[in-house]
Amino acid sequence: MIQGVRRFHELDPEIKKRYYTRDLISGFFLVSNFDLYRSAAASWRDTMGCVAAPDLPPPEQLPDATRDILIEYSKQVKQLSKTILELLSEALGLEPNRLNQLGCGAGQLLLGHYYPACPEPEVTIGVTDHTDASFITILLQDQIGGLQVLHRNKWVDVQPRKGALVVNLGDLLQLVSNDKFISVSHRVVPKRIGPRISVACFLRPLIHKGDTDSPPVYGPIPELLSEENPPVYVEADVREFMRIHSSRGLDEPSPLQHFRV
Ligand SMILES: O=C(O)CCC(=O)C(=O)O
Ligand SMILES: [Fe+2]
């Protein structure tokens, strides 16, 4: 998959520009800095991607350079996401199927990032400090490194390991778990060597027009609430949640705070 993402980003710009758009919903896209002019700094990366669940775009809309592997990878990630959501349900003391039934993996967005080698890493940011809006994000990274998570107020490197995936907990999981799980702040620092390739699959509810008749609303899962554990969030319309998420700079506070009690 890493090679497939690299192949696409290293295509002739004349071919790539067919896919360049700021519409990240309708088909396969290439984008650079979706939050340009909203974040304080631009990110040192380009991103390709598409919605991968409920359905990938039709195969003929996917570029040759990445089509077959994208279809295969997305199939595998869908299976894995079911298992991870089962494990997280159990970790919360819920029925194993609870998070899958809630539709936590029903919508998926797959992104393939390309961080070029950077001549001045001291004054550049790969991607700024943020939490993901997803329930969880399944992340594949190559061996270059640069991903960091905030742990006890210190930035800690997430060392690449061959064959390993990183799973980030996102804001929507924090909301439905009523703060039992906390979404992780992370960022990517650029390197003099590169390119660095990563592939992020965001597990989200169904949010696009036509996906569902009524807007999905998510709040703290009732089984997790009690007198000692009252809800700390109100119910959130996820379209509103995502609208807030994508209309701000990635470096601004997460949409979660809008829904705190
Ligand atoms: O490139 C990475 O390792 C992280 C990407 C990321 O944080 C994101 O896409 O939200
Ligand atoms: Fe992220």
Automatic annotation (TrEMBL):
SUPFAM superfamilies the record matches: Clavaminate synthase-like
Residue ranges occupied by any Fe2OG dioxygenase domain in the UniProt entry: 105-205
Family annotation (Pfam families): 2OG-FeII_Oxy
Highest taxon of source: Eukaryota
Chain ranges passing through the membrane: none
Record-level Gene Ontology MF annotations: dioxygenase activity; metal ion binding
Family annotation (PANTHER family): 1-AMINOCYCLOPROPANE-1-CARBOXYLATE OXIDASE HOMOLOG 1-LIKE, OXIDOREDUCTASE, 2OG-FE II OXYGENASE FAMILY PROTEIN
Protein name: Fe2OG dioxygenase domain-containing protein
Species of provenance: Linum tenue
